[in-house]
Hints:
Shape of chain A: globular
Strand order of the largest sheet of chain A: 1-4
Shape of chain B: globular
CATH topology of the largest domain in chain B: Rossmann fold
Radius of gyration of chain A: 19 Å
Number of domains of chain A: 1
Strand content of chain A: under 5%
Radius of gyration of chain B: 17 Å
Oligomer: heterodimer
CATH superfamily of the largest domain in chain B: P-loop containing nucleotide triphosphate hydrolases
CATH class of the largest domain in chain B: Alpha Beta
Bound molecules: adenosine-5'-triphosphate, magnesium ion
Strand order of the largest sheet of chain B: 6-7-8-3-9-10
Amino acid sequence: MDTFVQQLINGLTIGSIYALIALGYTMVYGILRLINFAHGDVFMVGAYTGYMLAIHLGFESSPSIIGFAVVLFGSMIISAVIGMLIERFAYRPVRKYSRMTTLITAIGMSLFLEYTFVVIFSGTPRAFPQLLPNDNYTLFGNATINTSQLLIFVVSILLMLGLQYIIFKTKVGKAMRAVSFNLNSAKLMGVNTDFVIAFTFGLGSALAAAGGVLVAQYNPKIEPLMGLLIGLKAFVAAVLGGIGNIPGAVLGGLLIGAAETLVVGYGQYIGIPSTYRDAVAFAILILVLLIRPAGLLGSNVQEKV
Amino acid sequence: MLTLENVSVNYGAIEALTDISLQVNQGEVVTLIGANGAGKTTTLRTITGLLEPRKGRVTYEGTDISGMATHKLLPMGISMSPEGRGVFANLTVRENLDMGAYIRKDKKNIADDMERGFTLFPRLKEREKQKAGTLSGGEQQMLAMARAMMSRPRLLLLDEPSLGLAPLLVHTIFEAIDNIRAEGTTILLVEQNANAALHHSDRAYVLETGRIVMKGDSRQLAADPRVKEAYLGE
Ligand SMILES: Nc1ncnc2c1ncn2[C@@H]1O[C@H](COP(=O)(O)OP(=O)(O)OP(=O)(O)O)[C@@H](O)[C@H]1O
Ligand SMILES: [Mg+2]
């Protein structure tokens, strides 16, 4: 039982990260019907930005909550700007062309980010500094949770609540929902849709960057290709939840995180070796596409009138 | 107030509008009638910048607005209720109306205008918190009109507001058009219901396969034998 609880904690930890990244995929898809394949790399950019901030502002030597907060928010803001620049200079010019064109642009953008970072930082992993003292807390029985896991939970929940607030309670959030339903109608309401689209990229990038910093705290090894696999899994999470659906992205992320660690913990009993961990997400993707392509919370009926 | 001069519009190689010229004066209700595919929606989409004219000019109060970014027109006073209503199905009725007032900041007046919309269409008040996608076609049409009024436009463009509605609702919609006009809003009304449109407008243009083939006083056009035969089914 203890190991089950432990597995669940570990699974939900990584699941929260998938959820944070999946939100960016799903929001951009909801608005542009674009799968932003460079989104996983923005997660990596967030981790490196956090790394640079930590080193240059001197937070690596003296762990403190303030240092962590500055690194987290600094990375979120800088990555949001980078996400908006990507939208402005890579996606906007090709928006009027076919979906295939934009998809290829996204793949190109992904490679561009990855190898730009290889050039700047080399492909060798770097150690992300410890920004907070890492303590272990014992829960019931022998299950433990450490500070960086706790941070992942707390920060992700706060960010998701913040996102919920922006989308449902603010003017720009209302405009985002309107644009996602009908771009031209939104324009007719006087909405500057280019701004709303850029804002959406900024928001998604900030969440991915937060994920990058949080993961780097948990597993302090960063490298330019770190966004590849995690980005793909987060994409699967978005599809599992129903791409375009915000609660779906959160649910999908948590489910995939839990499924992965359960396979690691118990797969051996039903003949699935724990080395299959990274295959779990893709097996789920195939199942979803076969059984329920619209995803768990996605609507099968097209709601456009 | 609004002038189209020799406007031609293409969809790719297909010419949808050929040399259209029309004018809407302050305070008027002008209607544009024509069969399916005549180019009525194309005309409105060109005025609102959703399409760019290949040739010709659209001017509004002396400013050339041909191909201007759509979202810049509402602040100038041009509002449109699009064909097929275009309400945001994923937003509530109230949120749709909020979107209509998106560019305004005067909260107090917005609230008053929303009440006015509810007075015009009491049905919307009852459905205030419901998602617009769950409304009936007629209710969505009322919402689209009320939403278009939330910006306090000086020029209102309506694309087939009575499409697919029961006679009683058609009556409600045209009554609302009369009310909106009485409050001083200029209207360009696109309709297939030529009979009602001609009776609720001052002047009319008849569009046939992308060209204006007749224009004039609405009463006179309603009495014209060609119009009677082709559009009034007499
Ligand atoms: N997006 C498009 N691409 C290509 N052709 C189009 C497009 N939209 C409209 N057309 C064509 O342009 C012509 C005019 O269409 P438009 O929608 O303006 O007609 P309409 O008068 O509004 O008709 P209705 O009364 O059926 O709404 C039609 O022949 C139509 O097929
Ligand atoms: Mg039409």
